[in-house]
Write the C-alpha cells for this entry.
Amino acid sequence: MEKILIVAAHPDDETLGCGGVISKYISEGSKIKILVLGEGSTCRYEDIDSKQAKLALEERNYNAMLALQELGIDDFDFVNLPCGRFDQVPILNINKILERVIREFKPDTIFTHSEHDSNNDHRIVFRSTIMAARPCGEHIVSRLFSYEVPSSSEWSYSDVFRPNYFVALTEKHLGTKWSALEQYKGEMREFPFPRSWTGIKTLARQRGMQSGVIYAEAFLLIRGFE
C-alpha cells in the first residue's frame, strides 16, 4: 500500500492541486495524509487577532474537514501558521514540522507546491519541503512532486509551472474534486475565475490533451528513485 503525503500552504490548496488524484488513489487503496501548514483566512483582516478573523479561521478549517471528508480523507493535520506571513516564521520551524510528519508517517510519495507560484506562502512551503525531504534522514521519500494551484501557478508569468507527469482522471474523479471544492464557501467563484467549475474542468481537459486522455491532473516530478 502506497503512502502519500500532500503538503499544502492553505486549506483548499490540497484539493485544487490534487483533488482528482486523491479521489483516484483513495479508491485504489493508497493511504493519504494531508498536512495543511497555514490557516488561509486572517490575511484578509487588519487585526489578525480580532473576533472576525478568528471566526474566519475556524470556518475555513471546518470547511476543510468537510472537503476532505468528500475526498475520503480521515488523516490530516492543520498547523494554522499565519496566512500570508510564512516569511515571518523561521523556515527551520516549518522544516521541523515537515520532518516530524515525514518521520512518523513515512510517505513513499510527497506532493507539494510549485516553486514558481505567485503566492509567497506556496513558494516557502516548496523550499521547506525540499529541505525536509532531502534523502539523508531516517526515512527516504521515493518520489517528490510539485502540483499546480489554479489562481496562483498560472499567474506567475515569468517562471510558469511546467509539468512532466500526468495522472488520468475520470468524470467521477473530477466530480468528486469539485464536490470537495464546493465545501470551501466563498473561495470558489464564477468563470472566468480559475477557481470555478468551468476553470477546473478546462484545466483538467488541457492537461488531458497534453497527455492523450480526456481529463488529467499535472505534476512536476522533482526527484524519484527505485
Notes: The first helix runs from residue 13 to 27. The first strand starts at residue 3 and ends at 8. The helical segments are 13-27, 51-71, 91-105, 120-132, 171-181, 197-211. The domain at 3-224 is CATH 3.40.50.10320 (Rossmann fold).
